[in-house]
Write a structure and sequence with these properties.
The chain is of the alpha/beta class. About 15% of the residues lie in helices and about 30% in strands. It contains 6 helices and 26 strands.
């Protein structure tokens, strides 16, 4: 009899895995978009380094704010350093991004003054220090600006460029090999020859999921249900990939050969086979030569949900990133009884109203773990713990936002 473990225990096992094959490479910053930065980025200067104008206007001494008029003694364009200083009774016309002239401490916007000949009259007062960017406003020298483990996006690129950093060190993405097993399934373009055959979506849906979440992928396609074909699949995939993901062949049927190959042919170390979870109770995770094998059930909804729950955290772990599955609180709009004592992940709709997530099940179909269309639309997964009780309308529940994992 197989020993099913709890969902929490299965996640703990994967979280505690030590990965020894994480390495880095250097990339030009634009080529590093979507990659994970391998070292803290620390500012080597203040930004700005000197008090700077935040808009077009006139640099003055604040003590002159109520003067009848102030003489304009020169212009101060951006990119130049003027020798003139602001003293009592005078001002300098200063433009956005210009250094504040010596002697000034406040900038009066152009729209707040009336220019008469070569003088200004301040028609609307401003507070002390107005529109002056202080030293280090953007960042200060020695400040950690981007932490190791951050996924690089447009904001990080902008900061790196401001630091004159053209190349950065990033973690090398894991490679994930994906295959669907089953003599009844057809790949794209295969011709159906009998009514028992079905079109496989698993290997392509999972490849898309992994690729869009930071992994390199190897598509192994559809593999027939026989020992030799499945053994060959694993032998090839394990040579090329850090993680090998299959669907089908892990249950208790006579033709579920994937588990037999993993256990008997590969002699892999089994981390767990069977989790008290719905969908995906027959999931098998193993290690072979420091490579991770994740064998998922064959039903489309089941394999996709389990790939999200188990494979994505492994990808994050290989990327050495600070990414996590996007689990948030939401208010449920109808009663939802607990049907079985398992950790259950149910497709639901999610909307955000006045800053609060709301959950309903309108249009979601009930049935087996094969209904992949339940993941379409603005969907999420309602999470029910193994020992949770019935949910009542208005309760706060945990949901996993599917739109946030691409």
């Amino acid at each position: 009899m197989r020993n099913f473990i709890s969902y929490e225990k299965s996640i703990e096992i994967l979280a505690n895995l030590n990965l020894n094959n994480i390495s880095t490479k250097k990339l030009f910053i634009i080529d590093a978009i979507g990659k994970v930065i391998a070292k803290d980025i620390i500012a080597n200067h203040n930004s700005p380094e000197f008090p700077t104008s935040g808009m077009d206007g006139y640099a003055i001494r604040y003590e002159d704010i109520n003067q009848e008029s102030l003489e304009i003694i020169c212009d101060n364009p951006a990119g130049f350093v003027v020798d003139s200083k602001v003293a009592s009774g005078v001002c300098i016309k200063t433009f956005t991004g210009s250094l504040m002239p010596k002697g000034s401490d406040t900038l009066v916007p152009i729209e707040n003054v009336e220019v008469i000949n070569n003088k200004i009259k301040i028609t609307k007062s401003v507070p002390f220090g107005f529109a002056v960017r202080s030293v280090g406003e953007n960042y200060k020298k020695d400040e950690v600006l981007i932490k190791k483990g951050t996924v690089i996006g447009f904001a990080q690129i902008g900061v790196l460029a401001s630091l004159n950093i053209s190349q950065i060190e990033v973690f090398i993405e894991p490679t994930v090999a994906v295959a669907s097993t089953g003599s009844e399934i057809l790949d794209l373009g295969d011709i159906q020859t009998n009514d028992a055959q079905i079109r496989s979506s698993n290997h392509l849906a999972l490849e898309a999921l992994f690729k869009s979440n930071g992994a390199n992928t190897i598509q192994m396609g559809v593999v027939k249900d026989d020992i030799d074909s499945i053994t060959q699949l694993f032998e090839i995939a394990l040579l090329k990939a850090d993680i090998v993901v299959t669907t089908g062949g892990v249950s208790v049927g006579d033709y579920d050969f994937v588990q037999d190959v993993i256990k008997d042919k590969l002699k892999a170390e089994i981390l767990f086979h069977g989790v008290n979870i719905k969908p995906g109770m027959h999931i098998l995770v193993a290690i072979k030569d420091e490579k991770i094998i994740v064998a998922l059930p064959g039903f489309a909804y089941s394999s996709t949900v389990c790939a999200i729950l188990y494979v994505l955290p492994l990808i994050y772990k290989f990327r050495n990133s600070n990414e996590k599955l996007p689990i948030v609180k939401a208010k449920i709009t109808k009663n939802f009884p607990k049907k079985i004592n398992k950790a259950i992940f149910t497709a639901c709709n999610v909307t955000c109203v006045n800053g609060e997530y709301l959950v309903d099940f309108d249009g979601k179909k009930e049935g087996t773990s094969a209904i992949l269309t339940n993941l379409l639309g603005s969907s999420a997964l309602l999470i029910q713990d193994e020992n949770s009780s019935d949910i009542k309308a208005g309760d706060l529940v945990d949901i996993l936002l599917l739109d946030n994992i691409k």
